Amino acid sequence: MPTCLPLVLRRCHTCASERFRANGKFRVNANHKLLDAWLLVLCTACGETAKLTVLERMNVRSVRPELLDRMHDNDPGLAAELLQDPAVRRRNRIALDWYNAWRLDTGGSDHLDREVIDVSVRFAARIPVRPVRLIAEGCGLSRAEVERLIAEGKLVSAVRLSSKLSGDFTFTLKR
Question: Which top-level group of life is the source organism from (predicted)?
Fold first, then answer.
C-alpha cells in the first residue's frame, strides 16, 4: 500500500533535475465558460513549480462538480488518483518513481515456518513493483534466495515473477 505520493520523473527547465514532488495542490483557471486545471509539482532540487495538465479547455458544465470541489480543496487523494491515471501521465509525458513510497503488510510472520505457503498478494494501489522484491521482503529472504527458489521450482506462480507487476497475483512457496 502507498505511504506517500510518488516522485514525478520529468526534466526541470531551471536546473535540469529530473525529480518533482507532488504536494496535492491544484490550480484551476476559468476563462469565460472554459476551465483549465493543473496539478502543481515542485522540483526536488531547486523548488521550481511545474504544472501537470489535468483539464484543458473543458466546458464548465462538463466537469463534475465533486471533481471541481476536490480540486478547489487541494485533495491529496485526488492528486494520487490523477498521478496513477495513464491518460494524465501520457498527456504530460511523465513517469512515476515509487521508491520508498509504499510498504508491505504481511499480516505477521507466523506463516513463515510452514512447509508450503500459498500467498495471495493484493495491491491497494497500482504500484509497479517486482514480485521478487515483494516476496523477499515478505518472507524475510534475500533476492538471490528468491531467484534460486524460482530456478529450483520451489517458488511457482501463474505470473512472471521477474518482471514488474501492478496487479494482484498469487504464488506458492515450498520449503
Answer: Bacteria
